[in-house]
Design a protein that fits this description.
- About 50% of the residues are buried.
- The chain is of the alpha/beta class and about 475 residues long.
- It is globular, with a radius of gyration of 22 Å.
- Helix 2 packs across helix 6, helix 8 crosses helix 11 and helix 9 crosses helix 10.
- It is built from 15 helices and 18 strands.
- The strands form four sheets. It has a five-stranded mixed sheet, with helices on both faces. The chain has a five-stranded parallel sheet with strand order 6-5-7-8-9, with helices on both faces.
- About 35% of the residues lie in helices and about 20% in strands.
Amino acid sequence: MKDFVVLVDIGSTFTKVTGVDLRQRRITAQSSAPTTPQDVSLGLQEALEGLKLPSGQQDQKQVLACSSAAGGLRMVAIGLVADLTSKAAKQAALGAGARVLKTYSFQLTEADRAEIMELDPDICLLAGGTDGGNSENILHNAKVLASLPRPVPVVIAGNRSVAAEVAAQFPETFSTYVAPNVMPQIGKLQVEPAREAIRQVFMEKIIYAKGLSKASRLIDGIFMPTPAAVLRAGQLLSEGTATDQGWGDCLIVDVGGATTDVHSLGAGNPSEAGVVMRGLPEPFAKRTVEGDLGVRVSVLSLVEAVGLGVLARDSGYSEEDVEERVHLLTGHPELLPQTPEEVVFDQTLGYEAIRLAVGRHVGRLSELYTPAGLVWLQDGKDLTKVRKVIGTGGVLINSQNPLFMLEGAKKDAEHPLELRPETPAYFLDGDYILAAMGLLAQENPEAALAIMKNSLSEYALTGRDN
C-alpha cells in the first residue's frame, strides 16, 4: 500500500472522502459533496476536488471506497426453521452490510415467489438444513428461485451434502456462490464464510448493476457496502491488533434518515450467575437494522412507534405541530433544524430512535418456573457490562448535544429486563471516520486502529450519571 490513502464513502445522500497519511497515522484532509444518483462519479469528483491534500500526496495516493448508494445492498434470506437456519441466514446477511428485505422459512410458496419478484433483491441468500440433515426444503427453494424471471446472484450456504445439487438447479444466467453452511449443526453458527461470499458478489456484480462502475476511473476499487465497513471498524476497535490493544466490548449506534443501525462487539454471555442462555448463540460482531426508526425518510413510522403524545410531551411541540413537522421532514429529508425548537425536536427524534433500536438489539431476560424453582432465561446478548457506546450519523454529529440522544442506549427503570449498557461512557464519531477506518482495516489495521483511538477519544463524553 502507498503512504497516502483516500477513503471514500459513497452514501445515498452525501459522498464523503478522507485523506490519511499512513506513515504518521493521521487524517490529513476531509471533504464531502452531495451524491449524484444519476452518475455517482460526478459527486465523487466534486468531493475529491474539495479534498485539499498536502503537496506530494495528490499523485501518490491509493483510493478505496465503500458504498451504500442506490439503496445499498438489498437481500432476501431463506432458511428452514425461523428460529434456526433462517435466523442464521439473516445474521450472515446483516453482518455483510446488507439491508434484509424479508426472511423466509420452510418451503417457498407461489405467493413467496411473487413477493420476491416484487422486492427485486440484489442477492438471495439460500440456507436450510444442517450438514447431513434436511435436504428437501433447500432443493425445493432452489427450484423456486431458479424460476424467477430476472436472474439474481444466489449465495448457497446450507446443507453441504446437497450444495452441489442445489447449485445445479440454477440456469447459467444465474450467478451462484457456494459457501459453508451458516448452521452446520444445531446450535452452531458459522456466518463469516457466507458474509465473505456476499462481499465477493457485491464487488463482482452489484457495483455494476447499480451504476457504481462509472466511478472506477476515480478509485482503485469498491470493496464493501458501507454498513459492513462500519462493522469491520467496530470489530477492530474492540479486538485490537497483535501490537495494539482494543477497547473491549462496545456498542455502535448509527442514526440515519432512513434507518438506525446498531452494532455490538462482544460475546454477550450472561453476566449474572444462574442465568441460562436460550436460542442460537449470538455472533461476536452483530448488526441489526431498524428500517422504521430513521429521523427523516422513515420519520412517520418512528413517530408511530414512539407515539404522537410522547413526542409532543418531550419536544415541547403540540401534537398538531409534531404532525406538521414530520410530514415536512418526510418530503424534505435534507432539511436541517434552524430554530431552537427544531433543534430540540431533532434531538428528541434521535433519542427515541436510539432507545428503540438498542432495545430491539440487546438481549432480554424472562422467567421460567420449573419444578426446581425459578430460572432466568436470556434471549440475545447481555450488553449490560459494555463500557463504551459510540454514536455516528448526521443527527448526532451535527448536534450540539449528542449526549442527550446517546443516553437513549442506557439501561432504564422502565425496561428492567432489557440487557442494555448500565454505566457506559459515550463517544462521538465526530470526524465521520468509522466507515473509512473499516475500509482501511482491510489493508492496514494498525493505522486504522490508531486513528480511531485518537479521533474518537477527542469526542469522549461523560454521561449525566457517571
